[in-house]
Structure formats: C-alpha cells, structure tokens
Amino acid sequence: MKFRRYSIKSRESKRLLFDISKRFAFDLQSFFTKKSKIEFIEIDNGNLILIEGKPLFFKTSNLLIPTLLFTEFHSCLPRITVDMGAIPFVCKGANVMIPGIVGVDGDFKEGDLLLVVDEKHSKAIAIAESLLFSDELCKIKKGVAAKNLHFVGDKIWNFATKLIEK
Description:
Shape: globular
Strand order of the largest sheet: 7-11-10-9-6-8
Oligomer: single chain
Strand content: 25-35%
Largest sheet: 6 strands, mixed
C-alpha cells in the first residue's frame, strides 16, 4: 500500500491537540506537550494521526476517531459489552446488534463514540457510533445499536499495528 507521511508544524500541532481535547473532552496535553511530534500518514480513505510515533487517531473528511491502539483513551468512552457470539461479526465490520449486547457501562446519546469490548476478557474490539441513547438500549430487544467505525482487523488496525512492529 502506498502512503505519504509528513510532520506538521508546532503551531498546527498545538491547534490539533486543542481541537481533539475539546472534541472528546479528553486532556491530550496531560499525555503530550505542545511540542510533541505529530505526523499524518495519508492512506486509502483518510489520515492516520501519529503523536510521538503512536497511531492514535484516524481522520476522514467528516470523522475523527481514536484508534483501538490508544488504550489510554478507552477509559473516557462509554462501553458496550458483547457476547462471544457477536465477536466474529463485529471483527469483520458488522454493526453492533442489540441481541448481542450483554452490558452497558456509561451514559451516551445518539452519535456518541462507544468502545465495544468482549464479555470474556473485556478486550476492546471496536469503536462504534451509537445509534441510540443508553437508556433506550435497555428497553429495545432487537435492531442495530451502534455503527461499527473501526475494528480489530480492519485496514486502520492492520496498518497501525505494522507501524508499531517496525
């Protein structure tokens, strides 16, 4: 896969860290400084954002999502736990269906990002966008709960893990 990798200037880095912190209500500056090296890698459908060499976010024209490799961010997201039968489907890109959910932790509304974890080990397997409010999820018995945005084994995951291995 061909890609282009480039660094951004410190002024742009400062603004990006501020924008991300504001968007996710997460203080990135507690992990990184304004002088942290930020790089973009242009791949097929967007940009992978590396901060100090770590692939932490993926940005498309209208979406910014944390990667599954940004484990420090996981605690900031509401999470839904899926049963073991749902895992193969979610890890192939399927949306999260209500019957496969065995637990909900945190409050969220439609459009919020969610961390999807497996019930056995509580391992993060996907980042999804909620299609419902958390209190609605408990009342509905069928349908789609969340749109899968990024999952273990997708192009973002595979590219990012190869970067880390180098």
